[in-house]
Every structure is written in structure tokens, then in C-alpha cells.
Amino acid sequence: MLNLNRAMRNRQTQWLLLAATILVMTIALLLARPVLHLWQKPHGTSLLYGKVSDTRHWYDTHGHNLITHAKVTINSLPPQTTYTDDSGQFWFKGLRNINYQIAIENPSENNRQYTFVTRVAGRTGRFYDLASDEKHNLKEMDY
Prior knowledge:
Protein name: Carboxypeptidase-like regulatory domain-containing protein
Shape: elongated
CATH architecture of the largest domain: Sandwich
Keywords: Carboxypeptidase, Hydrolase, Protease
Radius of gyration: 26 Å
GO molecular function, one term: carboxypeptidase activity
Number of helices: 3
Strand content: 25-35%
Low-confidence stretches: 134-143
Oligomer: single chain
């Protein structure tokens, strides 16, 4: 303990300790800033709402092809995830007016994710049909 007190009396050691403390605090703030950003609320005032359906399983015109309990994720900051309700509807609030990528996971299909790109401007409504996903159509085209 005596050596530490004696070392702290030295002016050069005090400056070195102060510089090391400032360096450690700066690095900690730089690392913590992106993590703190994930806990913030979305910044925009726009709204995206829509319905999810699959016309490959078209039963009739009463909306039985709407997909319930599908997981819908949007790549906002922070990312938002929701599930469609019993009517196949979902919505996201607090979005900015930019392009977003929507990922939809159908609960009846294992390990299958459909992606769509949409532009949000104000109150935007979209109808997403999983059968119109281009990647899926290219895999299951019948000639």
C-alpha cells in the first residue's frame, strides 16, 4: 500500500493513470453505443399494415387462404417481429419512410422463409401472397 501511495505522488504516474482511465472509458462508450441503440424505440411515424395469404391453397373467395399465426419480421432498427392474427393481418408502427425487407415464415412449412421488399410512406397497406414469391415460383414451376 505504501508503494502505491508513493507512486501516486509522482506527477508522471498520475498523468499515465488519467490517460489510461480516459482510454478505457472511451472504448467502453464506443462499444456500448450500438447496444444501447437496439433498446431505443423506432424513430419514424409511419405505419405498415397488411395481410398474408397463400394462393397456392385457394379454397374459395371467403378468405380461407389467409395465413394465421405466421411470423412476420421487418428489418427496422431495432428489428420488429409480430405474428398475423386470425384474419391474416399484421402491422408495424414507428417506421421511417424508406424501403424495408419483410420476412414471413409460414407456420405450416418448416424452415421456409419468404422475403418481400416494400416502400413505406405514411400509412401503407400491402397484401403479401406467398405464392408470388419469385424464388418459390422458380423452384416449383410446372411445364
